[in-house]
Amino acid sequence: MPTSINRRNFIKASALTGAALSLHDPIKAFASPKKEKIRIGIIGSGFRSQEHIGNFCQRPDVEVVALADPQQRSINEAIAEIKKYNRPEPAIYKNGDYDYKNLLKRDDIDAVVICSPWEWHSIQAIDAMNAGKAVGVEVCGAIKLQECWDVVNTSEKTKMPLMMMENVCYRRDIMSVMNMVRKGMFGELLHVQGGYEHDLRGVLFNDGVTAYDSGVEFGKHAYSEAQWRTNHYVNRNGELYPTHGLGPVAVMLDVNKGNLLTRLSSVATKSKGLHRYIVNHPKGGPNHPNAKVNFKQGDIVTTQLQTANGETIVLTHDTSSPRPYNLGFRVQGTNGIWIDNHAGELNAGLIHFEDKSKHHSWENTEAYMKEHDHPLWKKYGKDAEGAGHGGMDFFVDHAFIECLKRGVEFPMDVYDYATWYSITPLSEKSIAESGQVQHIPDFTRGKWKNRKQNFALNDDY
Length: 461
Ligand SMILES: NC(=O)c1ccc[n+]([C@@H]2O[C@H](COP(=O)([O-])OP(=O)(O)OC[C@H]3O[C@@H](n4cnc5c(N)ncnc54)[C@H](O)[C@@H]3O)[C@@H](O)[C@H]2O)c1
Prior knowledge:
Dihydrodipicolinate Reductase, domain 2, 2 domains, 16% strand
């Protein structure tokens, strides 16, 4: 869910030009030609897009050219966001669910950012690549496994790049830990955990007017995510939102770049929390029509994954219970362990290194996080202040734009999209088969063995 927006000041132009093209070896599968300015089309102009729009409008090297969204309210809010920065009004495509195809016909758009409901992501990404646009796609999981292959095949066929816009990979504490992993401080990684452990009950239902904590409606009587997200909880039972938890640890494990996810198994608890929320809500009650809805989604879904290099991963999806936000990260290596507690505050975790810490004792994370702060945060931390989700949204948009300008490969690309998105349908199948192990396809078709890590190797992007 979006956080409140307290926009940072205009980014210094010098910070935007960045350093000279970095010397690391980009993967060179699909990348765009170099460009000075990036012209963006937005597909889905709801809350999330408005965070991206705010970031884009603060960059002199980005123009938001067009918006496509069938809802007037979302269009109005997105235009208001653009106007805050005295930027020209974009062209609008609002005539129904497929008007985004007309946006894609424009020849003055380099890239689109897809912020629509989950069921549209792969469809619109495929259409955009076929129309010759680079693509950034917001987070979630696939509806069907086949769509993951369809997205990969389209990117390979059209040579158009796709970025998986996973902002949590840029959280400050996570980047510090990644830095420590890369310095070898944890030894060899053995086991990692992550998840989406966020009480979303006040997001999944509202009164149709105010987005959060305002009622028990969903679907056509609701507003924003409750219009579409909640239906997934009615009809599905799986790891519905894998990328916030998986993305950061997959980057640490070099998944698709020397490593591979191979198998998973998922289990789900019974479904209680959403019904209980409706019954106990002052605007709900046992006689409210939504109290009769059977939510198929288990309250807590636990997924175990294995990698080709011998590590294990546990993901947790827990969004229907009373619980303070914590994505539950854990990184265990042969020489140390980190446990995240709360929402990325530098001092909110626990850490232990066998060669540094007192025997069997936890240390607070703050000193380590500061000492090993990632070069990107050191360089752009001030610019990121006020951007969404504690600043990490600045970095995901920065990476998207910088890669497009420099004509280099995205740090989280179409293979990461397919792999991370595939967890959702595979977990649904596993749960339906009582936890049966599912094979995770190698969407790189063997290229993972030679692909090199290119996520945040320095302070460029
Ligand atoms: N990375 C993050 O931290 C984060 C945070 C919140 C949401 N998200 C993701 O962003 C995406 C959007 O979420 P949101 O909170 O903005 O939801 P939202 O409901 O506020 O916005 C979605 C918009 O898409 C529009 N839409 C529906 N069908 C469309 C179509 N066919 N073409 C174009 N637009 C269409 C809707 O009218 C709505 O305005 C979701 O994938 C969500 O999971 C990510």
